[in-house]
Design brief:
- The chain is built from nine helices and ten strands.
- It folds into two domains: 170 residues, Ribosomal Protein S5, domain 2; 135 residues, Alpha-Beta Plaits.
- The chain starts with a strand and ends with a strand.
- The strands form two sheets. Strands 1, 2, 3, 4, 5 and 6 form a six-stranded mixed sheet that branches. Strands 8-9-7-10 form a four-stranded antiparallel sheet.
- Strand 5 and strand 6 form a beta hairpin.
- With 313 residues, it is an alpha+beta fold.
- Bound molecules: (R)-mevalonate (MEV).
- (R)-mevalonate binds next to helix 4 and helix 5.
- The site of (R)-mevalonate has 12 residues, from helix 4 and helix 5.
């Protein structure tokens, strides 16, 4: 039996914009998905998915998960036509839209297969295979989630629109920043939401390009502010990013409500994160005490799940 792991993530800047080649920033979080792979006598693969999850998540993603694992098996190039594998998924990463749970499971399974079959794959190859797995969940992922899940840390990521490898770098800050992640408990379909934004963009290119122009300015300001540890400015750009995501129509009442509660209770910036129309909201806190305070208030306000984390070092 062999074990592999993949990290959860949260997107600080650039969900949806990253799909169209604009820079994005994601942070790996401490929670992980663990995959255990054992060989069996029967062909193909079977799975026991014991990951913690918000209600309905696993059921909604079941068909996509099957396609994803088939893709991974195809790309690790292990012949499962006579002997097969039994996959167990566990770990402390809660499956809820916005935590990168699908990417984390792809990375974990690819790593466990690598160990079990002695494939000698490095992280870049694991990331490439996890990307193929992610395609099972949503046809044309930007690759941000699997990259954050493979490498962890704080990542500046740009998708190559001509199909080449993405450009990414790890940003290291001199001090950590404090973040609270709150889940609405609603599971969104990334394929549907990304497809809807694409349809709106195609129908009204001027509308999209004016929002995209504002986004490109803000993400570079955010990058500078992260390096100079100017949390107030980072928070300001998170607030602005949330407004732009509202303009793209990917926020929803539940997310906007969590954003307002967080800002009213000490967050210096708050936005939705990930696909939107459900999923998660993030709050930047000025310090650890305020981070705990924001997390408490969000829990009491009915967030389905709340997690505090640091990022940047
Ligand atoms: C989903 O976590 C992030 C999106 O930007 C889609 C993607 O990057 O593939 C909405």
């Amino acid at each position: 039996m062999s074990i592999g792991s993949g990290r959860g993530k949260t997107i600080l800047f650039g969900e949806h914009f990253v799909v169209y080649g604009m820079p994005s920033v994601a942070a790996g979080i401490s929670s992980v998905t663990i995959a255990k792979v054992s060989r069996t006598d029967s062909p193909g693969w079977t799975i026991d998915d014991r990951r913690p999850a918000v209600p309905g998540y696993k059921e909604k993603k079941l068909n996509e998960q099957r396609v994803s694992i088939d893709n991974i098996m195809q790309h690790v190039c292990v012949d499962l036509s006579t002997d097969g594998v039994y996959i167990e998924l566990e770990g402390d990463l809660t499956c809820a839209s916005g935590f990168g749970a699908s990417a984390a499971s792809c990375v974990a399974i690819a790593r466990a297969m690598n160990e079990e079959y002695g494939l000698g794959l490095n992280d870049d190859e694991i990331n490439r295979i996890a990307y193929e797995g992610e395609r099972g969940y949503h046809g044309t992922p930007s690759g941000l989630d699997n990259t954050a899940s493979t490498y962890g840390g704080l990542i500046w990521y740009i998708r190559d629109l001509s199909g080449g490898p993405p450009k990414f770098e790890t940003l290291r800050l001199k001090k950590p920043m404090y973040l609270v992640i709150a889940s609405t408990g609603l599971t969104a379909s990334t394929t549907e939401v990304v497809g809807d934004v694409r349809a709106k963009k195609e129908k009204n290119p001027e509308w999209f390009s004016s929002i995209a122009k504002d986004y490109t300015i803000l993400v570079h300001k955010a990058r500078d502010a992260l390096f100079s540890l100017d949390a107030i400015e980072v928070g300001k750009q998170m607030n602005r990013n949330h407004e732009l995501l509202q303009s793209l129509t990917v926020s929803c009442d539940e997310l906007d409500n969590l954003v307002t509660i967080a800002r009213d209770n000490g967050a210096i910036g708050a936005k939705m994160t990930g696909t939107g129309r459900g999923g998660n909201q993030i709050s930047l806190a000025p310090d650890e005490v305020t981070m705990i305070q924001i997390a408490d208030v969000l829990k009491k306000s009915g967030a389905a799940f709340v997690q505090s984390t640091t990022f940047g070092i």
